[in-house]
């Protein structure tokens, strides 16, 4: 049976799939197919498809019924997908094994199942993992059309922050000069560069910087991202000031880096400041620290945004702050 499909060049496939999925326009009863350099994504409502897309009626196979871990377990376990790795947060070892087996037997394409074995710790913000199935902790994760290679055992990465990163990235313009002070493997820096901005991405973790450089090549933004390994307080002297936008994604200790941020800031600069604070006053401490460090600037908090709950009574928040000289 023919069904309406959006037809795009294969290289635009992932980006298009995500854009359609975001608007709930994908037809999940039929398979996405590729033929002769084109990708055909079955859709549910041709009238709602933006005009820039080409729609074609096409014979595509029905999608096989998926078996999910919950179907095998009789309860719905909580897990995150990171590329072809599945991440669990189970406290009970036996239950963790059960869930891992169900994940491996389900339709989720899975190479490795890992269970959290520690909190996010240390300067590089990594955590220990118990390997419950498979071996490799390295994967390629896709987010909003970009691909990030990473090893979850040696670098920080949280797929849960995808929407938050997208919220921030969308604010950037093509002509901006941006410094990502704690860049990790590049999930802010690379999409910023994808919008045309010139980005300097700093991280102290040499492994993160190695992946960042690989990801810059992988996503074809080599000309717009400079990766620098080191403590941002030290390497900031190599960076020309007058920056338009700064990302400070090091909750718990971003306040210790505000002097560096202010040294780099231009006359009209936006700062994205991440923090973890008690729910009674989640934005106050960050805002006070920024005002104290930026006393030469007019400081306007443009957004006070709760990213997620971090722990009981603690919130992960972001302040989008404009600094005007
Ligand atoms: C919470 S992670 C954020 C990574 C990335 N922005 C993301 O969203 O995935 C913080 C990062 O800051 C890096 N870091 C910690 N201290 C640093 C410092 N003094 N200078 C530069 N980077 C640092 C860590 O290695 C880690 O990759």
Automatic annotation (TrEMBL):
Q: Which keywords has UniProt assigned to this entry?
A: Cytoplasm, Methyltransferase, S-adenosyl-L-methionine, Transferase, tRNA processing
Spell out the CDD domains in the cross-references.
AdoMet_MTases
Q: Which InterPro entries has this protein been placed in?
A: MeTrfase_TRM5/TYW2 (IPR030382), SAM-dependent_MTases_sf (IPR029063), TRM5-TYW2-like_MTfase (IPR056743), TRM5/TYW2-like_N (IPR056744), Trm5a/b_N (IPR040601)
In this protein, which residues make up the domain named SAM-dependent methyltransferase TRM5/TYW2-type?
79-325
Q: Which domain of life is it from?
A: Archaea
Gene Ontology cellular component annotations, sorted alphabetically: cytoplasm
Q: Per its UniProt record, what Pfam families does this chain match?
A: TRM5-TYW2_MTfase, Trm5_N, TYW2_N_2
In the record, biological process GO terms are: tRNA N1-guanine methylation
- Coiled-coil stretches are none
Q: Does the keyword Transferase apply?
A: yes
Q: Which Gene3D superfamilies match?
A: 3.30.70.2580, Met-10+ protein-like domains (3.30.300.110), Vaccinia Virus protein VP39 (3.40.50.150)
Q: Which GO terms describe its molecular function?
A: tRNA methyltransferase activity
What is the protein name for this chain? Methyltransferase
Organism, as annotated:
Halococcus salifodinae DSM 8989
